[in-house]
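re: ur question from earlier - yeah i can do the single chain one, its not a big deal. heres the input i used so u can compare w yours
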Amino acid sequence: MNSSIIDPAHEPVATAWQPWQGKAAITFRRQGDRTVPQVQTQAPLKVQRPFYPEGPDICQSVLLHTAGGMVGGDRLNYDLHALAGTHALLTTAAAAKIYSDHPQPAQITGRLRVEAEACVEWLPQEAIVFEGAQLQQSWRVELAAEAHWLGWDIMRLGRTARGERFCRGEVRSRFEVWHGDQLIWVDPQRLQGSEALWQSPHGLNQCPIVATLVWVGALPEPKVVEAVRAASKSSQPSEIGVTRLQLGLLCRYRGHSTGEVRRWFIEAWKILRPYYARPLRTVPRVWPL
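and the output i got, formated as tokens:
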């Protein structure tokens, strides 16, 4: 009779699943007439080489998330720093995906520092939050005198092409903008997936897309507010809002089309750009238009 002896030292060992802990630290500095990035990353985050389609002083950086999406327990951390006199535009190579049915939330945290006479445009592509997913994001923007920040956040709640409605899951989001030592704008949001949230006119009102655009750095004239409001040309039952802030402008969208809100936000960006930099020449080539 043959027998097999198993050596415990050579048995396969089950390894526990480890969430991603991605990091991206980017410092933008001047070299002559050029804005150049100094980059440090940790997987799954990477940064493409910089692009200069608008000239050497405006640096476009594209962030890559090589894992393809986030699951519960994953964490991404961004530390972005624009030194005096720089202009940085940051976007993402594709829509973000937040996968569902995990007891822990996926987490995104960011700190963005903009020094005097510098500008940062944070313009990621949309995030798709699957029904049942949990997402927590927190951003802190710190602006020096005569600094500007324009950012947006576009979120699709549920995979509507598959008939999903955001009746399970949770999204928690908080943006803070500081001007010197003063907190001048804070935007906490919590969306707890449920049938009531989906149906309520005070909730999603059956709209899967919610989006925010913010510009902070100067007080816009009333004609600017009206121009941004007029730039929204909706062909669907969507809702928009445009409000002046203490030192900026706030745009809100609730509707059904990422293409529609992207087009409106781009038009708003074109209107606002001359008030803190030269007019917009081109949008990032990775965007689907």
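Residues 141 and 177 are 5 Å apart (CA to CA). not sure if urs matches, ping me
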